[in-house]
Fold:
Amino acid sequence: MLEGLLTAWAAVSLTFFSLRLAAGDPVASLLSQGLATPEQAESLRHSLGLDAPLLLQYFRYLGRLIQGNLGVSLYTQRPVSEVILEQLPNTAQLAMQGLLLAILLGLILGLASAWLRNAAGRLASNLAGLSTSLPVAFLGILILWGCRNLYLWGQTTAISPNLLAPLVLGIASAGPIARVIHSGLEDSIQSPYFLAARARGIRRGPRLLWHALRPALPAAVSLLALEAAFLFSGTVVTETVFSRPGLGRLLVSAILQGDFPVAEGLVILAALLYTASHVLSDLIAMILDPRLRRAG
Structure:
């Protein structure tokens, strides 16, 4: 827990200083766009404490953060928590759809690559490696390009446009899941208890596969918890490529506009999600693996 809090503090501090040093004064941006008069800009700068030294701004921000106050958006003058909650359902839906597809594809590729000793198994292994290596942005553009060409050729796709973004996230996250399952199955197949199961007459089928898969589940579930946090907070590229509303596009907009409170609130949310996912993955692994419970 302490490690998670330190991680969240480091993420918030890094975001605070990097945004202010890189983007400069957001009130000057409002002034240049004609969204405020010089008097209004100066008043806003004073009310936000932007005329104070940087370190003083930092400690003031930490003090408000401890009290649960994320601040107010510089552009909409709405509470940051309200702005984030407004976009949260869109990203949550996208992340859950992507996670379900990732689990399905990861299981299929992982099981096939480790269990099948033929061309299908080798193909599944290659597809898992390709899924792991392809950047999300490139994968999204590639899928959009393919759909566009099919449309130009007078063909229709069976995939709804609303499912293209979850499909990209699912394919991108399926590779690591497949790799973990493949590695766990390979270790199980070479273990003494698996050979003992074969010696007892258990045939190479679903029952024997379950014997081999059980030891690989703790590592796979731990990875799933981390992938869920990544999908929930790392949809910046996907939402931007597919022009979907959500926390990812909100973060990009906040950084480009210099809306510090909104960007910092989103970073805090991402840090807390990763911290919670680490704790959850450890608890699930201990439940699934008795050896971890005895060690803990």
User: Anything to note?
Assistant: The chain has 15 helices and no strands. Residues 23 and 256 are 8 Å apart (CA to CA).
